[in-house]
Protein 1
Amino acid sequence: MARRLTSNQFVGRTAELDELLLGVRAVTAGRPALALLGGESGVGKTRLVGELERILEADGALVLRGETVEQEDGELPYAPITSALRPLVRSRDPALQELGRGSRAQLAALLPGIDEVSEAPERADPSAQVRLFEALVELLDCLSERRPVVLILEDMHWADRSTRMFVSFLARSLRDERLMVLLTYRSDELHRRHPLRPLLSELERLEHVRRIELEPFSRGELTQVLADILDREPADQLVDRLYARSEGNALYTEELLAAGLDGRGATPQSLRDAFMLRIERLSGDAQRAARAIAVGRRLEEPVIAEVTGIEHGALHEALREAVAEQVLVSDEDGSLSFRHALLREAVIDDLLPGERVELHLALARVLEALPVRDHDSEVELASAIAGHYAAAGDQPAALRAAVRAALAARAVHAYGVAAEQAERALHLWTRVPNVAQMLPLDHVDLLALAGSAHSAAGDRTRGELLFVEALDEVDPGADPRRYARLLERLSRAQWSLNRGVDAVDTAERALALLPPEDPSAERASLMGWLARMRFLRGRFRDASEDAEAALTAAAAVGDSHVEGEVLNTLGMARIALGDVDEGVALLGRAIEMARQADDLDNLTYAYTNLADLLMLAGRTAESLETAREGLALVPKRMGRMYEWSMLTVAQLAFDAGDWKLAREHVRTHGTGVGGISLFRLLTEAEIAVGEGDDELARNRLDEVEPLVEVTTEPQWIGWYGALRAELLRRHHELARARETVEHALGRLEVCTDDVMRIARVSAAGARVEADIAQRARDLRDRADERDALARARIHGTRLAAAAQEGGPVERAWQAVGKAELARARGRDDPALWRRAAAEWEAIERPYQLMMCRWREAEAAIASGDREAAAEAAGTALATARELGSRWLGEELEALSGRARLRLAGPADADGDRDSGAAEPSAAEPEDPFGLTPRERQVLALIAEGATNRQIGAALYMAEKTASVHVSRILSKLGVRSRTEAAAVAYRQHLT
């Protein structure tokens, strides 16, 4: 029998190891990486990871390695993360002290031993889980500043929902940290509906992710392994037998050798049988201890003694025997576990049902009697106890333990586990007598706990149903405050389901239950929530009224957190209603309160909201400066808040004309969560539309469309509608552009006082109608022309109302609308475009300014003022080139070429200025496009719809000659079709 099971040499796997080391080298250079290592059970993933760890530690990298724990009944939240990070707490790593106070508080519940107090939340808060994730990323970032970090999470096929959510968050948050994340999993465990499959598919789409599939040993590799284990060259017959039996599986090969099966004896039918042959060779005490550890997974010696009843000395010898036989291994903290999970699974499967129940029950009672030590996690212990009681079938104890585990999971924001444990408790509730005397909460509280946990974990529909069930059990007349609290939770769940109208109605019902003369925390919170919803839905006046009342209520009960949130909402509402200075002052107070409380979340919200509202108020430079100041206060490791601040700078920089800055700040790795997805996609689309990258713009708008369709927030509806309409208009899809505008305005006018968004979409509509009217005139379709003109007038009326309600931005859009209305009437007026340009210039918006100068140049050409046209076109072209607007630059160059304008260009070496286009020749001064009299005759026939043959017959020329004339005319006019040539001829009075 071979006494050594594993090879001292690392055999094979060189390509896989090199691939992993290549990722580490990229990490060292500041390019984070994520590797997915899959393979069948026992193929050698752990050995490969061990070799990688040995090399990395020798090179000075920090390796954090954690294992996922399989739960027979339920999940153990964050198991691989806590086991990977726990050594940092024990060693008092300096990085823990470098974290912000808020981050340490978030980590304290997950990693006991951090010197920070963490209070359990009263209800599940989805943003709290994100803050925990951000704190974990911040810790990893701090560690990576000293040396490269490799975070290894093994056996991810057993990972709980919260761990999977963190991995997804981490992968999308990586930017320039010196961090590599390595996930291992059993590929043969991944059935079609396995919860890890969607995560793997999601991760594989990221650029910095590599996937490695570990294959079994080849025959040659297996020969090397056997030679090292046996200390001699193996016989070919032995290699053949073992390779045939194990099929190159490393663990199976080792177990066959350990069982003495070198070809003499019966062959086990499976790897499990090979494992059990080894277990059965152990002494009776060693087998009893092994069975207890199989059920408990990882146990310390005192717990094993309590569960098995083995005397101390005998137990010590039994454990020594099991370790010597390489069945068990001893961990750093003194606990014992199986050398391989497959070996443990074989022991579990071999237990009789009664044995298993007895061991689960004994373990639950022993663990329940243990105190929670500094290095233990309350949620880990509570979840283990709940699982053991449930497996043992002790329903009262299982109910009690499930509630404790749910509360512990909520405390560390492991909402998936909290929901599962709460659901288990609800299932047991009716089966256990005298429930009220044994639990710290009643049935309504438990329903609310489950509902909040489900909502926070992403199952908002289930959360809503549970809140409704809880409301059915409460009498609003007898306990109005409790009923109101439940209604507020229901309202938040409905809002998260994009049912804004229902959410507002539910919150109003809750508020009606709380008398205004009796100030309370519930009333302050509800009013603040209502104010925020009303603002986000564009009801600024209602939001302002509710926020004022909420501010008074919050001050009366001394709730500074609600007060800060309400100041934020009230400040935004004031600015939106035109009281800019007052709104700025209120948001300044919110910023100061957040600073004092070290509340980075509210500090970031206040800064980004202030910057956004300043831009809407027309204070462009101040807006961008505020956004950049806020971004400087947010550490990049705070993924969600950092990305929101980055996108705010990008959006405002685009409006302010700093497109280089906008491009730099939109290049983010989006987390793909909620409003951030809308914000990122629309910002990328805005920049793409401005630059002229129509394909990218179309892709981003297609991607964001389903998100916009389910939201009720005007900021997204209006933004999307204006961008989509402009892109469609630019590609002459005018009917679809009109539909897009009407759809957006229909949704906006139903639910909003947000005149700025109405103004932008209405201006886009006026532009579309002017194009439709112009085309109708070209085609001599009077009915379509009248219809487009009527619609343009309606947009003009809407813009006038918006300008009356709004500020300088709305007045600028109204000026654009007036100019577009004149264009729709066929009386394009350069003076109207100059006035619109002046409005945009006053608020420092160069992109909109040059759009107006472009239209001014077109109108000036039509009116015969070539000098004014050249000045307007030259100014617009210089700005387009400076910003990087390719599409508008091409339009201006084509316009200047057609009209043969002389544009002022950059000075040459002699101080002269280069001309943008040649001047008209002396022979043809009257024609701005350089058409000869003969070409004008041909153009007139083109406008009548004549073919080349008809043109030749009418003008006594060959058909081929007519074709040459048509080609020259299209070139001079800068158009691509006869229809476009006819349209230009009518507009410019060339026929």
Protein 2
Amino acid sequence: MNWYIKTIDECLSHWQTNKVTGLSSTEALKRLKEAGSNQLKEKKRIGPLAMFLRQFTDFIILVLIGAAIISGILGEWIDSLAILTIVVFNSIMGFAQEFKAEKALAALKKLTAPTAKVIRDSQLQVLPTVSIVPGDIILLETGDIVPADLRLIDSQRLSIEEASLTGESVPVSKDAGRCFEGVISLGDQKNMAFMSTIVTAGKGIGVAVKTGMQTELGKIADMVQSVEKESTPLQRRLEQFAKWLVYVCLIICVIIFVVGILKQGKIIEMFLTAVAVAVAAIPEGLPAAVTITLALGVQQMARRHALIRRLPSVETLGCVMVICSDKTGTLTQNEMTVTRIFTFNKWVELTGVGYEPEGGFYQEASPLAPQQDQSLMLLLKTSLLCNNAKLYKNEEGWRIIGDPTEGALIVAAKKAGLSQEEVLNEYEPLAEIPFDSERKMMTTIYKDPNGKRIAFTKGAPDILLNLCKDIYSQGETRRLNEEDKTTILQANEIFASQALRVIGFGYREINDEKDIEKEMTFLGLMGMIDPPREEVKSAMIECRTAGIKTVMITGDHKITAIAIAKELNTFDETKDMALSGIELDAFSDLEFEKIVEKVKVYARVSPANKLRIVKALKAKGYTVAMTGDGVNDAPAVKEADIGIAMGITGTDVTKEASDMILTDDNFASIVAAIKEGRRIYANIKKAIHFLISCNISEILVIFVAMIIGMPLPLLALQILWTNLVTDGLPALALSVEKTESGIMKQPPRSPKEKIITKPLGILMFIQGVVMGLCTLIAYGIYNPYQDLVKARTVAFTVLILCQKFHIFNCRSENVSCFKIGFFSNWWLIWSVLFIILTQVAIIYVPYLQPIFRTVPLNLTDWGIILGISILPLVIMEIYKLFTKYQIRN
């Protein structure tokens, strides 16, 4: 039921309650049993053990487990143990990340008040919030957290901060006496108060109409728990890659088995050999390389003010196509700022953003000294005297106590050199007529330094103007005529069209207490807005260059949202659309999907609307990022491919539902994180390129040798050492490769793009063939029929050195490693040197020789080995040079 359409009497009658007596304790207990406790309920979650075991269900992990089992059956226990160690390491990393993320509901529960003031049995009682039932009469005062969804039955200057629930950037003035018709958004339901919102001013009384999971907060909790996090693009690609790898391994097994039987006829021996080669084909170091690459990316992003909560999300950032951004506090300062002032026949611009009292006054782009303008100074002084907010400075900067609108007025006055404390010291406060939604005005009465009593008023410009008799202009007061009124109303319309919140000001000397807010002298208008962050404009430009769409989603009014979007150059009225939440609800899912790509601004939206927007974009094939700070953002943040929470202004709920937290609440940090995500994905592909091409070379060495009837050039332990150690460490060094130039000038890659494209697959195969041939040539030179151990030692060493030279090819598919900077990645240099030193140790240390079946080599041997091993690098450098020449011509 929409309670905002019901009158106060209808609500009280429906719940059979009374404003004075409330419910009886007996009735309340009965309703508590029927409705349940007033708290958020958590759906059953999987336990830590089940969560840990779930880490072993990824397809590539299952492949590795199978490889470990087969290795054990073949008696290769060292191989089996090494593979299982990698599997367990990856599972522990994944479990640690997922376990941290299961806290969203606990954060929601923190938002609810522990106690509430309730009238029961005709007495005011302070009761636990969980015991509130529908029909309870709740009292609200400044600072209270609303304990349930209430239909207000009394309001005295009541204002409630609803930003976390609705996205509204300023507190909402409530009016219990109003009723509404039709369907309206939460932010417009001025006769309602919602669970978890905060009373910022005044008093109120309400009847509880919804409790627990039935409240608006409860609906959000349900949505947060209902959203299942999908796998990331990288996880999906690795899953596809693992399946492809299994098929390749099976084919290799069959071919080697069949060919071996035809050549030698030994069925059992050929079966074991075929399985051993298939196990060798699996890049055991790949999961570790990917995990550690992502982990290093997490550290790098933390330095860029982005905390990653789920490891795979690092890569997901790199393929973001759409950023759905909350307006308040994300694109804007979340600090109301006076930007324009109108005194009669004078327009004044103010610079400076937020609560920092730094900025200047300008008239027609020329600097203006406010102290020399009597009208302007009187207007600013009035804004200080008709004001209950306070401006102060702490370690975090300038802050406001009280209404943000009134805070903006204090800041504007301070920019002109007016101190609130000094002005208040000159005037003696006498009385105040608080703001209410019927009058739409506030008046304060002071005794000035000359002993005169003066009333200072601010309020809605059109209403205040009708109560003015005179107008003040440059030290003179004269009668207000119809032409003056027309000019003032036109100024008000201009301000409103710029999405400014407009306040009118007036004053009068009083001799009695009657009709204080009549026959006033009009002073002027002040227009304010929550301005965009300075750095957001450049971030938006970089998004457009990178092919990333930006969509603004806000709880504010549509006209305000469009104005901000235009200022950020992200909205074109000729081709872009803006929708309110109610307009969005009027579309069916099919209709909405047809237009979703055109909509750049959403205003006055509900949590369900935000969730629907994200789902519609994902249905169109977009990889979606959703930023947010309020409770209302949490379901959509969790549904998005990459959910981004604000670290400073964000609620715990949104942080726990997110994949990434911005520690500086800076939209520009999102763009930096996307750039980092693209770099990380590129480096993961480089690692895969290196590992698979190396595995191809190992398979070809064994396969070709077996086909031509030669003894196997590599033993099982040598293959594992090459796969796991000598390949793994340099592959990890690729993870710290610097960002390639022009990476943010490329469009986002498709989430359907395979991790190994056809051109890359062909290139890897050719490179594997080259390294395999180099190994076989060296093996043949040393004639395995005469000295098998030495021939294997040379082949083993050539293969490892070929791969170590080849890693420099993998730094770029088309740019020379010398142009990149041969020594620009010292981690790579040190890893290669380390592998070379370990290989020397394997060859010359007596303790290691029998383990790896090696013999010492002389200088001539090393000359031949180096001459052959460098060929893969030389060939690729010639290929890159030839390709570059072809492109130029």
